[in-house]
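Sync notes, pocket subgroup
Present: LS, DG
LS reminded everyone that the earlier model was apo-only. Rerun requested with BIS(adenosine)-5'-pentaphosphate included. Inputs:
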Amino acid sequence: MKIILLGAPGAGKGTQAEVISRVKNIPTISTGNIIREALKSGTELGLKAKEYMEAGKLVPDELVIGIIRERLAQQDCQNGFILDGFPRTIPQAEALERMGVEIDKVIEIYVDDEVITRRMSGRRVCPGCGASYHLEYKAPKKEGVCDNCGDTLVQRQDDQPETVRERLKVYHEQTAPLKSYYAAKGKLFVVEGQEEVADTTRLTLEALEA
Ligand code: AP5
């Protein structure tokens, strides 16, 4: 199954992708995680993406399209995958089609901007293994420490309130048009993001079976 998870920053795409990946036994491809990893290891991609990402802007299409082309060619994508954070613009969606990728379903996780802003301030991530937590909704067992690898949790630089506002603006201007793009192809399913992660998971899995 080839799935796209669409939704505003902080809507819960990464959180749901983790569960779907386990249930369907397919990999998650998160362009955000790939870029953050490149930033951390100081590769050319990381250097090129740095200023865009830190300002809450989109990284240029040609860079992310290149990342996706390489990643989808890998063996573990043969039986399907979840795209988390890609495509984010119409040109990215068109590039995916030109690669010959036939998407089965696009799930939009819809959450109000106000709720998103609140959620982002509570998100903490592990710099070691990339696991994501929330102070209120998905707290680690020991405060400030990653359950998986024991590293100290940090706040993402682009989760600062001003950057979150910019990311939401960019989402509405450049990514939201993808909703009608995929609705016109009969592939869009909207899931209302719920207060509890497990409730959103149930609705997401139902949408995938529909
Ligand atoms: P990226 O990393 O993709 O960020 P994003 O899309 O802005 O999404 P987030 O990771 O912030 O949020 P999410 O929806 O995954 O939410 P999460 O599950 O963590 O991209 C970052 C940057 O990279 C971009 O700004 C851009 O610069 C660049 N980039 C990436 N892809 C690109 C592309 N294709 N083109 C160009 N540039 C690109 O949840 C958020 C928090 O809420 C967590 O703490 C979680 O625990 C909590 N939570 C989740 N669900 C619930 C719930 N139901 N109830 C309560 N809390 C919940």
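DG: The chain has nine helices and seven strands.
LS: The first strand starts at residue 2 and ends at 6.
Action: DG to write up.
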